[in-house]
Specification:
five-stranded parallel beta sheet; 7 strands; two-stranded antiparallel ribbon
């Protein structure tokens, strides 16, 4: 089973994505930086789905921590704001919430976690 840690303070968005996913993708929610750090220590995800603006800090601060602690973990930004090239280069994929298509997002998760092969249809990162 693919494990996704979704760091997001919009509970409605989390529910829509989680309910649209296949049964073999397990989602956990962290609504703050503190919750995310605790969750990362207790159960390593295959993919971190990361919002930037969180109640207790900037989600991008988690990127380097995850890269050090969990080098196998893919990181995808899901944000309501534009992503600067410097930030985009530090993650595996980035999606704007305003352009969000849940099926495309789930396909990206499959691709980043190795469930879709490079020769299969996959979206650009």
């Amino acid at each position: 089973q693919i494990k996704v840690l979704h760091v997001e303070d919009d509970l409605d968005l989390y529910q829509v994505i989680r309910q649209s996913a296949c049964n073999d993708v397990s989602f956990r929610l962290a609504t703050s930086m503190a919750e995310a750090r605790l969750s990362l220590k207790t159960d390593a995800p295959d993919l971190l789905l990361l919002d930037i603006e969180l109640p207790d800090g900037d989600g991008s601060d988690l990127i380097e921590e995850v890269r050090r602690q969990l080098p196998h973990c893919s990181i995808m930004l899901l944000t309501g704001h534009g992503v600067e090239p410097g930030l985009r280069s530090r993650v595996d994929a980035a999606v704007l919430k305003s352009a969000l298509s849940v099926p495309d997002l789930l396909k990206r998760i499959d691709y980043l976690t190795g469930r879709l092969q490079p020769d299969e249809e996959h979206p650009d990162g």
